[in-house]
Amino acid sequence: MTSCETPRVTSEERTARRLDPVAAAAGALLVVAAAVVGTVIERANGSLHVNWPPLYASWSPHLGPGTPAAVVIAVLVIVHGPPLAARLPWRRLVVLGWAGALAWTGALAMIDGWRTGIAGRLTTAYEYLTVIDRFDDLGPALRDFTHHILNNAPDHWPAHVAGHPPAAVLTFVGLDRIGLGGGGWAGLWCLTVGTSAVAAVLIAVRALAGEPIARRAAPFLVLVPSAVWVGTSADGYFAAVAAWSLALLAVAATHGTSQLPRRGAPIPAVAALASGLLFGLTCYLSYGLTLIALIAAAVLVLARTVRPLPLVAAGAAAVAVAFTLAGFSWWEGYLLLVERYYQGAAAVRPYAYWVWGNLACTVLIIGPATVAALRRVLAAAPAAGRGLRPSAGPLRDPADRLVVLVLAALFALLVADLSGMSKAETERIWLPFAAWLPAACALLPAARRRAWLTAQAVLALLLNHLLYTGW
């Protein structure tokens, strides 16, 4: 083949390219259906408890100081993202991916201005910063934590404090103790740490599916609509902790393989122990994030090893023991949370709507490109599944390995959906699962990557300019 020739497109790929926009259109129809049906339900009886179904948001067209920056960053990623991702040295690409995500997410948040978009988000009546002074004496606060979860308990916790194990609120207590108190620092913490999930996913995808796949995914991991919520809620921070736990597990499990050469890689034991510590922290940040164990299982299946498990278990156990000795019982807290959950809006929010309305929220946070890519993932799933049989040996095709990883994240999200413990507000609650789905965009054809990136950016800009999101 000469340099002026273009790669031959097979009939199978031509069919796939025709189906990509069909899948994206189907996702859009799901959103429209959720909006129409949800509006009818909300106007009829108010049982959804959201102003702009299926999102927890209000209609509020506006511009802001972040608008010009967001548009410029989107254009830069669309135009220069794919070629830069292809040629930059790997470590620079990881850092640039994080920096690009930080810039994009920060610009989107600043569309609402500093106070509304960043500094005031975690200071509302539902949030963590309203109870910082109740942790001046840390020991009694942790021992009594479960006594304030229920709505009818004395001095009950605000919704988000009651809805999470204490590591969530302790993060902001810790920031306050070191002189970084207030909504501004809390917002910057969530923004900075939350966007690091891009670097973590890149590292994991490289370890499990190879560097070319990770490079193709990079621009899509940066320019994702979920950035509208990553920078404005603590769930973005939770997503990053979970992502780094999985990334370190992938590094530990694949150390010395063709995906991750031994040279320059962290020591597997250190990576495994750190993964366990972060997994333990993840479980004490959010009860529902125990489901990332499903993605962790896929990591180990792809690596064909369980060698990291003892150290991962030791790290997770260390976190659990520390909180237990401090007086907090995770299981007691979870059972009380379930009771508290049905003391609030969840008691009237209809499962029959939210079990599919939540998926419409997911379409909005992952964007049309990811929806199209997920169609390719599902189409490739049978072949990838056959390759996972013990008799088949290691799964060699990098694309199939990516398919398995993305399917695990999608499965975790669907389990969360069917559980009924996430009725509404999943645009932020499911960020830890959704962070992995845009990696599937590496499967999209190179000739159409800029078009799909444009679709991602346009959706994010429309969401942030037309709606005022509650988180």
Summarize this entry quickly.
Helices cover 66% and strands 1% of the residues. It is mainly α and 471 residues long.
Give the SSE order as H and E letters: HEHHHHHHHHHHHHHHHHHHHHE
Categorize the overall geometry: globular
* Main sheet: strand order: 1-2
Class from secondary-structure proportions: mainly alpha
- Which whole number gives the mean pLDDT? 94
Fold and architecture overview:
There is one protein chain. The chain is mainly alpha-helical and 471 residues long. 66% of the residues lie in helices and 1% in strands. The chain is built from 21 helices and 2 strands. It has helices at 11-45, 67-87, 90-110, 114-119, 138-143, 159-162, 167-177, 183-195, 197-209, 211-222, 227-230, 234-254, 268-283, 292-303, 309-326, 330-341, 351-387, 398-419, 426-429, 431-434, 449-466; strands at residues 57-59, 467-469. It has a two-stranded antiparallel sheet with strand order 1-2. The longest helix is centred in the last third of the chain and has 37 residues, at 351-387. It is globular, with a radius of gyration of 22 Å. Residues 1-6 have low confidence and may be disordered.
